[in-house]
Every structure is written in structure tokens, then in C-alpha cells.
Specification:
Helix content: 40-55%
Strand content: 15-25%
CATH class of the largest domain: Mainly Alpha
Number of strands: 13
CATH superfamily of the largest domain: Tetratricopeptide repeat domain
Order of helices and strands: EEEHEHEHEEHEEEEEHHHHHHHHEHHH
Length: 372
């Protein structure tokens, strides 16, 4: 470790891969330049002003020929690091001020025995800037452990040893989305044609690309292949069941959607997303009592447990959404006081929610007294 001001403080190398990121790169680097001790940027073939922008922040800019392999590019960026730990970001990521402070504090407190640090990745924010969809990623790793990236698309960093969780988070802001670009889909299909044997993880992420591009039959085929390997990460299996249920509903197959939601419970305790989907299906069938059962179960699930597991987390399903739907259910049964009670509970989670405001006006028109 490097000694600064009499204390032991870790040093951090930033490792990035970029291509044509002139719109986002400065925003990212502005958010991290005062936290890290070294910035390494590997450019995979930019034709815009990305490299000129990068040079405003670092002289450690390297070229790497793009070979349709994200892991290879990531490993190249890691190979340039010289500090105690390596932090990786994408150009459309930022550290918000509070997270910069958390990471600076972590630099002072992190023990040399730690091999990797996981942080939340917030990929969707609401209008108030609160995260609504997050999951954990191993974000900061000890350089001397020589951890490597794997996977030509949707690559992952394989870590082991002493892994700790940090309150610091990385936030994804506007950037290219998988649904608007067919780059990853083309890489997968090129690999398929070449005879590449897909790992379970490859099967899952190829199915995701097909889903994002509305190739629903193909997505269903590969989600099923993924699940049938019985070797996938439980969170990916749960998500695959959710995507299969969504496809079934798009194709008008409600019972099949129900079956996939229930299948998700075989991988772990029920998740609120799947409970709410079941509630929605039964409500659409006017089976209100069944809908109430599933929505009420969603309100009782422990969001902190899901966070600790590092699961994909859509906070709406653990907050206002099931209560708004219970409001609809009880209103349909003409149990107006219970309906208003759940709208009030939804309001406690999100006072500015448009559904909550609409319901407030509706209940005002009914002149309801407060429930006891």
C-alpha cells in the first residue's frame, strides 16, 4: 500500500475500454478523476473525438484492435494498470458526488487482505434520481490477483477470495442501449455460425439480445436451452423465467406465463416482480381474490434480502406498484376504504406518482372517511 499523510491508503487504477464515446467520456472522467490515481483508456477504434477527449485526462491512452471480443479488450485495459487496485467503468457510467465520497473513504479504510469489492450498479433512475433498477457487480479488484475477464459479449470478471460489499455505487446514465444497437446480436450470431460452443451464460445473454430485438421465438428457444443446462446462476434463471413469461403474455398464452412465474420460485424465494405479474394476469381474468393474494405477497417480501443476494432489483415492485394494484383490486370489489388505504401506502413510497395522484382525485370525489 502507499503511505499518504501518515496513513495507509490504497491506490486505484481506472481501466476503461472505449469506442466513439465523445458524448459521454468527459462526464464519466470528470466524476472519477479526483478519486483514482491513474487513468488507463484502451480505444478499440474510435473515429470521432474520443481520443482527443481522453488525452485531456491522461497520457495513458492505448490502441487495441477490435476482434469482436469484449473480454479480450477488458483484459488489455487491466494489463495497463500499475496501482494496488483496478476499478473499471464504461463511458456512460458516473460516480455521483455521494459515491465519490464513499469511494474516497473506502481508499482509506480498505484492508490489504481484500481481493475484490462489489458495488451496486444503478442502471435506471426515477424522475427524482432514485434508483429503480440495480444489481451488484465486482467493481474494484486487487491487481496482484490478476483476475481475468471471460465472455466475448456481456463479459464477466471472475473473482474469488476475500470479497466485500461497499455502499459506493456506479450509476449508468444515457448511452447506447442493447435494444437500439444490433452489435451484440451480430457478434452472437457470427459465433453461432462459426460453431462456437455457447456456455450457459452465453445462451442466456444471446436469448436476452433476441428478446430485446423482439425475436421472441428465438429468445424462447435459447432461454429454454439455458434453463435446461441446469448450470446457470440462479438470478439469471429467475430472470429468464420472467422473460419467458413476458413473451408468453405477448403471444396471448396466459397459462404458460403463469407456469413460468411459478417455475421462477424453484430457484429461490418468490420475487416481487413475478408475484406482481401473477397478480396482473389474474386481475386481467377478473379473478380478483387471486390477484390480491399475489400482490399482497409482493408487499411482504424483504427487499434487503434481495439486495444482499446481489440480485437484479426493480424497487418499484417492492414499493408503490403492488399497493397501487391492490387499490385497483379492492376498488373493483367496492371495498373503497381498503382501496384508499393501499393508495396511501403507495403514496408513502412515491408521493409524485401519477397513478397515486389520479387515485387521490378519485377518492376525493367519493368523499371517503379515513379507514379505522
Amino acid at each position: 500500500m502507499t503511505s499518504r499523510g501518515g496513513g495507509n491508503v490504497i491506490t486505484i487504477s481506472l481501466a476503461m475500454i472505449v469506442k466513439n464515446e465523445e458524448e459521454h467520456l468527459a462526464r464519466c472522467l470528470d466524476s472519477i478523476k479526483d478519486v483514482v490515481d491513474e487513468i488507463n483508456i484502451v480505444d478499440t477504434g474510435s473515429t470521432d473525438h474520443t481520443k482527443e477527449i481522453a488525452r485531456n485526462y491522461t497520457d495513458r491512452l492505448f490502441d487495441f484492435k477490435w476482434i469482436d471480443d469484449f473480454a479480450a479488450a477488458r483484459n488489455e485495459s487491466f494489463s495497463k494498470a500499475t496501482m494496488d487496485y483496478v476499478l473499471w467503468l464504461d463511458a456512460d457510467d458516473v460516480l455521483l458526488p455521494k459515491d465519490q465520497e464513499q469511494l474516497l473513504l473506502l481508499k482509506k479504510q480498505l484492508q490489504s487482505s481484500v481481493d475484490a469489492v462489489s458495488m451496486f450498479y444503478h442502471i435506471r433512475l426515477d424522475a427524482q434520481g432514485k434508483p429503480t433498477f440495480s444489481f451488484r457487480r465486482n467493481r474494484l479488484v486487487k491487481r496482484s490477483r490478476s483476475f481475468h475477464w471471460h465472455g466475448f459479449v456481456h463479459e464477466y470478471l471472475e473473482v474469488y477470495g476475500n470479497i466485500v460489499q461497499s455502499d459506493a455505487a456506479v450509476t449508468h446514465l444515457e448511452g447506447e442501449s442493447s435494444s437500439s444497437s444490433d452489435r451484440n446480436l451480430k457478434i452472437f450470431e457470427k459465433r453461432l455460425k462459426s460453431g462456437t460452443k455457447f456456455t450457459p451464460r452465453d445462451l442466456y445473454y444471446y436469448a436476452n439480445e433476441c428478446f430485446d430485438h423482439r425475436k421472441y421465438d428465438r429468445a424462447t428457444e435459447y432461454y429454454e436451452k439455458f434453463l435446461n443446462t441446469k448450470k446457470g446462476w440462479s438470478e439469471d434463471c429467475i430472470d429468464a423465467c420472467g422473460k419467458l413469461a413476458a413473451i408468453a403474455l405477448i403471444q396471448g398464452q396466459k397459462q404458460k406465463a403463469i407456469d413460468y412465474c411459478l417455475k421462477s420460485f424453484t430457484y429461490d424465494l418468490p420475487r416481487a416482480e413475478h408475484c406482481c405479474r401473477l397478480g396482473s394476469i389474474y386481475l386481467s381474468n377478473n379473478e380478483v381474490d387471486k390477484a390480491i393474494f399475489w400482490y399482497e405477497l409482493a408487499t411482504r417480501l424483504d427487499i434487503e434480502r434481495v439486495k444482499r443476494a446481489g440480485s437484479f432489483l426493480n424497487t418499484d415492485y417492492y414499493g408503490w406498484l403492488p399497493h397501487v394494484q391492490l387499490c385497483v383490486c379492492y376498488d373493483r370489489l367496492k371495498k373503497y376504504s381498503l382501496a384508499k388505504l393501499h393508495n396511501d401506502k403507495a403514496k408513502a413510497y412515491d408521493p409524485s406518482n401519477a397513478y397515486v395522484k389520479y387515485n387521490d382525485k378519485y377518492f376525493d370525489s367519493l368523499n371517503l372517511s379515513q379507514p379505522k
